[in-house]
Write a structure and sequence with these properties.
Largest sheet: none
Distance between the termini: 38 Å
Structural class: mainly alpha
Shape: flat
């Protein structure tokens, strides 16, 4: 649905092709990185963990409350915004630590 649209018909050939491309790209990254896999894990942890743990849930909470008619300055939406800001600060801290400690 993300690649071809919501109304597209499911095709096993396309599914298998995209899965094969995904596996080959992962293999290429693994071969390029080699013994420095810890670098990949550090960067993945610094970026993906705050995104999945704090930013996206808070963003969804913030947007859903907006669709339900809560004002931008309501206490509930401010909590969601605070979660987004906290997640961004944790991500910035993780990225900064990775840049300063290569």
């Amino acid at each position: 649905a993300l690649c071809f649209g919501v109304d597209s018909v499911f095709s096993w050939k396309i599914h298998a092709g995209l899965a094969t491309i995904n596996v080959l790209l992962s293999l290429a990254v693994a071969m390029l990185v080699g013994s420095k896999i810890s670098t990949v894990f550090r960067w993945t942890g610094a970026v993906a963990s705050p995104l999945v743990s704090f930013i996206l849930p808070s963003l969804f909470y913030f947007l859903i409350l907006g669709q339900q008619g809560h004002k931008l300055t309501s206490t509930s939406r401010m909590k969601g915004l605070a979660g987004i800001m906290y997640g961004l600060s944790v991500m910035l801290l993780g990225v900064t630590c990775n840049i300063m400690n290569p």
